[in-house]
Structure prediction request, 102 residues.
Amino acid sequence: MIEEPIPVDFKLTPENELEIKWNDNEVTRYRFQFLRGSCPCAECVSEDTGQRLVFPKDIPSNIRPVEARPVGRYAYQIVWSDGHDTGLFSYKYLRELAIGDS
Ligand SMILES: [Zn+2]
Prediction:
């Protein structure tokens, strides 16, 4: 059985990025604005059509994550400085996003 990678550490960098270290030794980084604009919750992505409603360009550049709460063993719930806290960022999704944020 192949296990999905899980985070072992994360921190906020001076470059306004979230940096995650994974148990397979990968290190991934996400700009706050990009990550907030990639939120997968029902307010940010239409449940009916799957269309994204909120994009990184819609997010203020001073956005910051306030808290990242582990949810089970598969996701972080990220609380943002704009009060948005409904996004569950699964570890799988975070690994996929790391490829897109370049
Ligand atoms: Zn959202």
Residues 39, 41, 43-44, 84, 86-87 surround zinc ion (CB under 6 Å). The domain at 7-100 is CATH 3.30.2020.30 (NE0471 N-terminal domain-like). The mean pLDDT is 93. Helices lie at 32-36, 91-100.
